[in-house]
Amino acid sequence: NLFPPEISKLFEEHIYESGVRIIKGGGCQTLLSDCGSVIGCRLYNGSTIKADITIVGIGSTPNTNIFKGKIRLQDGARDPAIVVDQNFQTDCPGVFAVGDVSAPLFCSYGFFQLEHAEHAKQTGAYVARYLMGIFDQKPLAYNPSISSQICDIKWKFFGDNSGRLLKIYGEVKSKLLVLWIWEGRIQGALIEGGTDQDGEILKYATKDQKKIDWRDIKKAETPRQILDLLK
Description:
By secondary structure, the chain is an alpha+beta fold. The protein is 23% helix and 27% strand. The protein contains five helices and twelve strands. It has a five-stranded antiparallel beta sheet, sandwiched between helices. The chain is flat and about 60 Å long.
């Protein structure tokens, strides 16, 4: 999961205050209808929820396991991504993989799967040009990033969250900044309520895995102080 428990709790509390109720582990078993209109849903636990509007989000998990033994897949993953080179070609010549199913080699993170619309568009366009005979393209320098909005919470995440969660600065709806550190370097960063300039600072700090002094981190108390350190 992208959000550690500490961040999830902060977001959930704010969403609850906005009038939204989150039901965890319920799962919709079936939709209820009357005269052709959806009026609610029945959950797997037997309870029902009334609804004026129903939005169905089914999600998806690419079935890459069908390629097991034929092309290289990520090691140790339950739903492994397809490992590709800088041109998004698999270890089977002439076979390419882009978007959510691919795990390209990011210089800072190793083979890294990124499930995001912008990444899918960029990798698809890159391979299309390659197949058209444009072989002198620069390697796609894509820095892993995800952005979204939940109610009135707008957040952006840069890099990788596999490092150590260091510290949470600020609070939701004013400016919230979270850092992931590994061996003294910025591995990942999440900001909520920040400016475009703040995003650019974090984008390059995670891309370059900027080294940061632990003593300075301990002294900092606000998101602004941390952002100034990362410039």
